[in-house]
Amino acid sequence: MPISRIKSLRLSYPYYLTILLCIMFIYSSILSYYILTNDQSKCSNEKIPLISKKLLSTKRKLAVLVPYRERFEELLEFVPYMHRFLNRQMLSFDIIVLNQIDRYRFNRASLLNAGFTEIKSNYDYIAMHDVDLLPLNPNLSYEYPVQPVHIAAPSLHPRYHYEKFIGGILLINNKHFELVNGLSNRYWGWGLEDDEFYVRLKDARLNVTRPANISTGINDTFKHIHGKERKRDTVKCFNQREVTRRRDRQTGLRDVEYTVIDRRKLEIDGAPLLVINIKLKCNETATPWCNCTKKNDPSYS
Ligand SMILES: *[C@@H]1O[C@H](CO)[C@@H](O)[C@H](O)[C@H]1NC(C)=O
Ligand SMILES: *[C@@H]1O[C@H](CO)[C@@H](O)[C@H](O)[C@H]1NC(C)=O
Ligand SMILES: *[C@@H]1O[C@H](CO)[C@@H](O)[C@H](O)[C@H]1NC(C)=O
Ligand SMILES: *[C@@H]1O[C@H](CO)[C@@H](O)[C@H](O)[C@H]1NC(C)=O
Ligand SMILES: *[C@@H]1O[C@H](CO)[C@@H](O)[C@H](O)[C@H]1NC(C)=O
Ligand SMILES: *[C@@H]1O[C@H](CO)[C@@H](O)[C@H](O)[C@H]1NC(C)=O
After folding, report:
1. Quick one: 62-291 is in which CATH superfamily?
2. Best CA proximity match to 120, nearest among 96, 136, 154, 148
3. Tens digits of residue pLDDT in 171-220
4. Ligand 5 pocket mutation pick from 218, 219, 223 by most atoms within 8 angstroms of CB
5. Which atom of ligand 6 is nearest the CA belonging to 257?
């Protein structure tokens, strides 16, 4: 380095020091102003620390997983309603519709396994949620479930009142859903997959809790928007009846087979939702009842 340049550096040393001191002064002024105003707001408005504490405790992210096929009117009502309901609880959530687009019979359980696999890295817990059941009582909390929480409890559900009922709406954290290997993939057609899931939770010694201190009852806790004209697929063919009565120790989250065709972001009345279009695969040797037709099984009932 030429001598003249070193000289000029030396000369300007006090100049840099002054600038540095100025910056430090401005910085500390801003900092103390921030701390002071923050303290003032704490004194003048007690709600601010409460809200921020609430936000901190609900930082965990909820994926509302909705197994779905051809129920457009119900979806139109469900999404804006749930969006408002969960926003009031100040939760961090997304509504994700798992749309089954293959031609097999509806498989709620496999859709949940597939949906969970797709979204798990971005969320901490899921709500397994029927599209036709709207929570009316704002005290039904969708907060992070330390143990699985059955929101649609038998004492509150408009239709199902048996003690082991666990369908409708269930909150479970990712760790527990993985622990029980999700749901069985053998349930094509309507029903019973939730009863099998109950046994999975029980075998894993998870303690399902239900909403406490809810003042509403079976008539006014939920709104059931399932159209009576819509027939449920309760057909049984091949040996479905026999197999689906048993606990399934083989299939579940780890072996669900599907293809995601695409993901679409939509809005209904301003409420956002994600639709994942899913093609499930059926092993027709293991579960031939994924496709009940007279041609396949002339004896089906
Ligand atoms: C179901 O079975 C029928 C009759 O064998 C067949 O025509 C149809 O392609 C099958 N559907 C699927 C999705 O495999
Ligand atoms: C469930 O409850 C039982 C009895 O209260 C307790 O022993 C067990 O540890 C609980 N299970 C979990 C996973 O917390
Ligand atoms: C429910 O109410 C009872 C009595 O009012 C109270 O002791 C209990 O802590 C409440 N439970 C919850 C979970 O709020
Ligand atoms: C919700 O809980 C609060 C506090 O316990 C109670 O005052 C209110 O009546 C409850 N609301 C309903 C709809 O049950
Ligand atoms: C619910 O409604 C039905 C029909 O309106 C009525 O018969 C029943 O008593 C109600 N149950 C409760 C717990 O209010
Ligand atoms: C289908 O299921 C049968 C019987 O459970 C099994 O032997 C076979 O390996 C499965 N096929 C595939 C492609 O997974």
Report:
1. Spore Coat Polysaccharide Biosynthesis Protein SpsA; Chain A (3.90.550.10)
2. 96
3. 999 999 999 999 999 999 988 889 999 999 999 999 999 999 999 999 99
4. 219
5. 14
